Amino acid sequence: MIILFNKPFNVVCQFTEHETYPTLKDFIQVPGVYAAGRLDSDSEGCLILTDDGVLQHRLSHPKNKHIKTYWVQVEGIPTDADVEPLRRGVDLGDFVTRPASVRVIEEPANLWPRDPPIRVRKAIPTSWLEIKISEGKNRQVRRMTAKVGFPTLRLIRYAVGEYTLEGLPVGQYRNIEQ
Description:
This protein is of the alpha+beta class. The protein has two domains: about 1-65 and about 165-178, Pseudouridine synthase I, catalytic domain, N-terminal subdomain (Alpha-Beta Plaits); about 65-160, 2-Layer Sandwich (Alpha-Beta Plaits). About 15% of the residues lie in helices and about 30% in strands. Strands 1, 2, 3, 4, 5, 6, 7, 8 and 9 form a nine-stranded mixed β-sheet that branches. It starts with a strand and ends with a strand. The model has no long low-confidence stretch (mean pLDDT about 90).
């Protein structure tokens, strides 16, 4: 069984109680499934859950290099030259990222409102990037955009490999045929 979940902001990727935030159990009442990978509570979007341990390992292990696509709202308006370091790989201190596919995009048309909304500073414009990476280290995308001078305001994982959020409302899930 494969479940695709559109994880809302401030939801923790675990089924056990959390003292502050809602968890997966507040949205998914399917026994025996576990997340294949995770998203931080302040990230949104595509989360895959399965009851198949082999599939879970294959989807979440970095050696398998599944491409993850993120929509990233950043502070400022980066140029192609600004994001070029991300395309080559950036040194984050504890590791150097693999090269990423990065492009400036319009705000996604099918975007849901975030609750609560991002902080807005009237004097600083925002823009959107599509970033594709084949790794997924702790807070990697946020650290990458900050490193090149464009802090992340909102982070949405749109896809993991072939699995996308297309047509899946926030807070909802669907079963995927294998």
